[in-house]
Amino acid sequence: MELGGMSSRHPFIMLMQWAEDFAYRKADRVVSMLPYAAEHMQRHGMAPHKFVYVPNGIDPVEWQGPGTPIPPEHGDTLARLKAEGRFILGYAGSHGVSNALTFLVDSARLLQAQPVTLVLVGQGPEKKSLQQRAQRMGLDNIMFLPRVPKASIRRF
To answer: Percentage helix, strand, coil, to 5, in the chain?
Structure first.
């Protein structure tokens, strides 16, 4: 409803709510990355014992060793920014509505007088509109780079 701007009375939303409630009642287990989602799920028919919380995070084993090098475009950009004495604030991940990167782009305006550059690495349906927003705002302290392999995130 929030992402699509739909009313709780919209037929599609009502159908989706029915499906959600049905799934909570019939599932053997319900897994969420949100630790407090159980309350919502229980209000919609899930028995408390079905809830399993699995935190979103990293596999520490993947972060051992030197890691996979980042692409040259990324390495050259970061090296240049460092040589200019810039503080680099990085984000690596999807550029979608649910990632709320509009707020990050808007915050770049507050940092324009500081030696700070925001570097956003990734792809997603909102990337182009985020780039256009930064351009409209005249921001020269934010950069958008292509995605990197997951194994390179650590080096980024």
So the answer is: 45, 15, 40
Confidence band, pLDDT 50/70/90 cuts, at residue 76: very high
| Same domain as 104, residue 46 | no
| Whether 94 and 128 share a structural domain | yes
Which phi and psi (to 5°) does residue 119 adopt?
Answer: -120, 115
On the question of pLDDT at 74 being above 90, the answer is yes
Containing structural domain, residue 20: 11-53
Q: What pLDDT is stored for residue 77 in this prediction?
A: 96
Helix (H) or strand (E) holding 80: helix 72-83
Q: CB 144: neighbour CB atoms within 10 A? A: 19
Q: Tell me the C-alpha distance between 137 and 104, whole Å.
A: 13
Q: Residue 51: what are its φ and ψ, rounded to 5°?
A: -75, 130
Average pLDDT over residues 102-113: 95
